[in-house]
């Protein structure tokens, strides 16, 4: 299978093009697909990591977690949850400090030794090299989602004081506006109308984000989706986190879809769609690369793993699915 650039921002494997004509439902990831989160969630990872290192580990000379580190962890397929990624970065940098190793080189060594088991693989790699039980004990991660210290810091920075109070009934220790305000919504009414024309109500969302968070940024656009068959995994148990295929299977079954297009931007999304197909529910993955800081690298990642459709943006879907 070979991905070929068909036109600006569109890469398709010609041998699988007939599959696209059979699609009868579309399910979207949210972050990096419907919303560009570079200035929101990514910034929350960076700020939370810095805050915890300074205030818990007493490390004031840490490198900043940049997009290469974020993309590196995400490319392993085990870090759909941004707080998982934040935790992995924190304990990696604490370990580097204790081992007196170059922080940048060391964190990329950690990434190379990580896999789709996520923080489990990171902890295993680090525990074999150095004692980081102190920071692990302080953070007690993951614990119970909204009662855990790391989740609280991350959520307070991401949501801001007013929305955090509304969502969790507690006061934030931070006063600055929430980074969620930096969400850049890509989805628009025209695209929704074009999709509805062909797929009627068979358009859903399956995202790691919570429903309130998605609603805050997407506003009335969220109501255009089949919410009964959409899944907001932050509101569910950790066992359902991507790449667990169960939520996608439930969504597909709920919409009575025979051939589904799942639109995502991460390896977790790709792995999940593949698992669903392996379980007998025909699902085609469409990779979105335009919101990545390094689109070419992400294109290569999807290509190497056998993706048959990659787009710069969801706004190219009408062209690919002959909706224009």
Task: Provide a concise account of the structure shown.
The protein is of the alpha/beta class and 324 residues long. The chain has 14 helices and ten strands. 45% of the residues lie in helices and 11% in strands.
Topology of this structure?
Layout: E1 4-7, E2 10-12, H1 17-21, E3 25-28, E4 35-36, H2 41-55, H3 67-74, H4 82-99, H5 103-112, H6 119-127, H7 133-139, H8 149-168, E5 184-185, H9 189-199, E6 203-207, H10 211-218, E7 231-232, H11 246-254, E8 260-264, H12 267-278, E9 283-288, H13 295-304, E10 309-311, H14 317-320
Give the tags.
324 residues, 8-stranded mixed sheet, alpha/beta, two-stranded antiparallel ribbon, 11% strand, Rossmann fold
Give structural notes.
This protein has helices spanning 17-21, 41-55, 67-74, 82-99, 103-112, 119-127, 133-139, 149-168, 189-199, 211-218, 246-254, 267-278, 295-304, 317-320; strands at residues 4-7, 10-12, 25-28, 35-36, 184-185, 203-207, 231-232, 260-264, 283-288, 309-311. It is 45% helix and 11% strand. α2 packs across α8, α4 (82-99) crosses α5 (103-112) and α4 (82-99) runs parallel beside α6 (119-127). It has 324 residues and is α/β, with parallel strands linked by helices.
């Amino acid at each position: 299978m070979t991905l070929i650039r068909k036109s600006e921002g569109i890469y398709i494997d010609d041998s699988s093009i007939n599959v696209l004509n059979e699609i009868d439902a579309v399910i979207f990831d949210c972050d990096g697909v419907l919303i560009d989160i570079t200035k929101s969630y990514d910034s929350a990872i960076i700020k939370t990591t810095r805050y915890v290192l300074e205030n818990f580990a007493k490390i004031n000379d840490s490198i900043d977690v940049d997009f290469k580190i974020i993309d590196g962890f995400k490319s392993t397929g085990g870090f759909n949850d941004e707080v998982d990624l934040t935790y992995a970065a924190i304990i990696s940098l604490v370990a580097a400090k204790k081992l007196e190793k170059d922080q940048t080189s060391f964190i990329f060594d950690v990434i190379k030794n990580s896999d789709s088991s996520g923080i489990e693989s990171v902890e295993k790699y680090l525990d074999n090299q150095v004692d980081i039980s102190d920071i692990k004990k302080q953070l007690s991660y993951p614990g119970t989602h909204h009662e855990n210290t790391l989740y609280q810091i991350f959520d307070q920075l991401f949501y801001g004081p007013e929305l955090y109070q509304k969502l969790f009934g507690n006061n934030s220790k931070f006063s600055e506006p929430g980074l969620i305000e930096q969400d850049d919504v890509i989805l628009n009414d025209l695209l929704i109308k074009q999709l509805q024309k062909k797929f009627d109500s068979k358009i859903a969302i399956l995202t790691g984000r919570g429903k309130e968070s998605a609603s805050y940024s997407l506003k009335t656009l969220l109501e255009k989706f089949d919410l009964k068959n959409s899944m907001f995994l932050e509101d569910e148990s950790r066992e359902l986190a991507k790449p667990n295929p169960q939520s996608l299977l439930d969504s597909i079954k709920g919409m009575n879809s025979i051939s589904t297009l799942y639109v995502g931007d991460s390896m977790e999304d790709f792995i999940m769609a593949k698992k669903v197909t392996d379980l007998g529910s025909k699902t085609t993955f469409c990779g979105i690369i335009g919101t990545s800081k390094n689109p070419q690298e992400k294109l290569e990642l999807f290509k190497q793993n056998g993706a048959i459709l990659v787009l710069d943006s969801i706004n190219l879907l009408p062209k690919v699915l002959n909706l224009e």
